[in-house]
Design a protein that fits this description.
The complex is a heterodimer. Chain A is built from three helices and five strands; from the N terminus they run E-H-E-H-H-E-E-E. Chain A is α+β, with helices and mostly antiparallel strands. Chain B is an alpha+beta fold. Chain B has a single domain, classed as Molybdopterin biosynthesis MoaE subunit (Aldehyde Oxidoreductase, domain 3), CATH 3.90.1170. The chains are: A alpha+beta, B alpha+beta.
């Protein structure tokens, strides 16, 4: 299983903080595509090209292949400091 | 030595500066404080969200990169999360070193990378409701001078 977290605007638009799915061996791009099929709000929240992805707490690009047990997170560009 | 903290309480700036000041071999302490600003009283407060499992790892890595580039001794990096009112501190960066040029450069580097890579998100509360703060191109540009 893989735990998937959402933060900031994306979390608010989806109305959930996290979910668990079996998505190993999928690329991040494929996962985004699959999540977007869950409905309009999913497609809307994840449509931006600026959506960032972290796997196991490190930023990755959309070609990254998900492994068993990886923790995945989607979030908008960061605005701390 | 590093102090890295992410928490909801006020940043105790005086005790951080006291700690940065302690080493006799250091001739320089440089600090940066980022605070909540409000133009024409529009912003009342900010709420800072973060990705706890990732944040400390990223902050630790930023300091590690700074130590690879410059000869620096003590580094303090403290970031608040949760609700922060206008004119309160959001972030504190302090660096001590033998000479000022290393401490100045490392402090600026740490802030520039933090602004682009540390997983924090700001939401503004204003008189007309609340909105998420957009990332700025100027922060992306600031990072380019280091790589």
């Amino acid at each position: 299983m893989n735990k998937i977290y959402f933060f900031a605007q994306i979390r608010e638009l989806l109305g959930i903080e996290s979910l668990e799915l079996m998505v190993e061996q999928m690329s991040i791009a494929q996962l985004l595509e699959q999540l977007s099929l869950r409905g309009d709000k999913w497609a809307f929240a994840l449509k931006e090209k600026t959506v960032l992805c972290a796997v196991n707490h490190a930023l990755v690009d959309y070609h990254h292949i998900i492994q068993h047990g990886d923790e995945i997170a989607f979030f908008p560009p960061v605005t701390g400091g | 030595m590093n102090i890295i903290e992410v928490n909801q309480s006020y940043i105790d700036i005086n005790s951080l500066i006291t700690w940065l000041y302690e080493l006799p071999q250091d001739g320089a302490v440089v600090t940066f404080i980022g605070k909540v600003r409000s133009l024409e009283n529009q912003v009342i407060s900010l709420t800072l969200e973060h990705y706890p499992q990732m944040t400390e790892k990223v902050l630790r890595n930023i300091i590690h990169q700074a130590r690879d580039r410059w000869s620096i001794n003590r580094v303090a990096l403290v970031h608040r999360v949760g609700k922060i009112n206008v004119n309160e501190s959001i972030v504190f960066v302090g660096v001590s070193s033998a000479h000022r040029s290393d401490a100045f450069a490392a402090t600026e580097f740490i802030m520039d990378v933090l602004k682009n890579e540390a997983p924090f998100w700001k939401k503004e509360q204003t008189g007309n409701g609340e909105n998420w703060v957009e990332a700025k191109q100027s922060d992306v540009n600031a990072l380019k001078k280091w790589y």
